[in-house]
Amino acid sequence: MTSDDFEKLLEELTNVGGPSGFEEPVRLIVERELAPVIDGREIDGLGSSISTLNNGTSRYRVLLTAHMDELGLLVKRITPEGFLKFQPIGGWLPQAIIGQRWIVKTHKGEINGITGIKTIHVMSPKERGEVFDIDGMFIDVGATSDEDARNRLGIRPGDAVYPDSKFKALEGGSRFIGKAWDDRVGVAVLIQVMKGLAEAKAPITVVGAATVQEEIGLRGAQTSGYLAEADIAINLESGVAGDYPSISLDEAQEEIGGGPSIFFHDSSMIPNTKFRDFVVDLAERENIPIQFNVLSGYGQDGSAIQRTRGGVPVVNIGVPTRYLHSHQGLVARSDIEECVRLVTKIVMSFTDDVVENLRSFD
Ligand code: CO
Known about the structure:
The relative contact order is 0.18. Strand 6 and strand 7 form a beta hairpin. Helix 1 runs antiparallel to helix 6 (181-200) and helix 6 crosses helix 10 (333-348). The chain has helices at 3-15, 24-34, 94-97, 125-128, 146-152, 181-200, 219-228, 273-285, 302-306, 333-348, 352-359; strands spanning 40-43, 49-53, 61-67, 72-78, 84-89, 101-106, 109-114, 160-163, 168-170, 175-178, 205-211, 232-240, 261-265, 291-294, 314-321, 329-332. The strands form three sheets. It has an eight-stranded mixed sheet with strand order 1-2-11-3-12-15-13-14, with helices on both faces. A five-stranded antiparallel sheet has the order 5-4-8-6-7. It has a three-stranded antiparallel sheet with strand order 9-10-16. It folds into two domains: 3-70 and 179-359, 3-Layer(aba) Sandwich (Aminopeptidase); 80-163, CATH 2.40.30.40. By secondary structure, the chain is of the alpha+beta class. It is built from eleven helices and 16 strands. It starts with a helix and ends with a helix. The site of cobalt (II) ion has 6 residues, from helix 6 and strand 12. Cobalt (II) ion is lined by residues 67, 182-183, 214, 237-238.
């Protein structure tokens, strides 16, 4: 895949709408990309897509995971005036929801809308300093009434809503802005790594799971992790960049352009220490820049995989991302490419002996 083709894939993956529970458009892209190289595929009962590259001789299976879903909203009801009240899906800050453009996925097609913000002209000084309350928010789709929204626009309670925010390449293509890098950047890495491993003939059976519903509690990782029967696993995520004004190094330690990050702690998981050190040593040996992150919050699919069957050694590897869980995120091309290189090298080193050693506590 040329670097232009890869940029196009990133653009397609970030532009497409797929809030938790509504990931199908993302899944179709993953399956289209992987179909020519994989040996088998199954979809679990929740909708995660699990692809396999078989190695007939290895004793072990490595699982690579990345989640397809993004933050969104769900239409709760339509007011008599035609405004949409909603349920947030995933961890939104109220400030990130208000005053934005959105796309509503109806059974008739996609509709544009905005979360209108009360005008400053009528506010008291006290009200101007307050954070907007999610319960008071609504989407304006230009409908004239409840009936107009239902009949003309085709909107129904339960319809999914996602951020209206389009991909753009900055700095000659070295930086990309867009929504949903969490975790479409991980999905892009998963696709590239699987393609590379198919070509290089990995020494181990590789299972690649594009999971659903991570943002609402790692749900797809539980079901696909059960099916994958992994002996060792790597979760591919958007990392948390701590390199812009208003964030401190005590909150997040990785930076854009510094290479992929390995998480030593987040609130959902402590990685297997042997595997963690193996990754750090390998990156050093291969001259791949790597960063470390210790977060007190956050949660990721790796923690669900870690607890499948009798317990699985897992690491979480991130592509540093600024402004997560909002309409506009920023990632660097070099971090994505180095992440692909690192994960490919790790899996290519997985002979039976290496995996056996990583799994052992001796
Ligand atoms: Co994520």
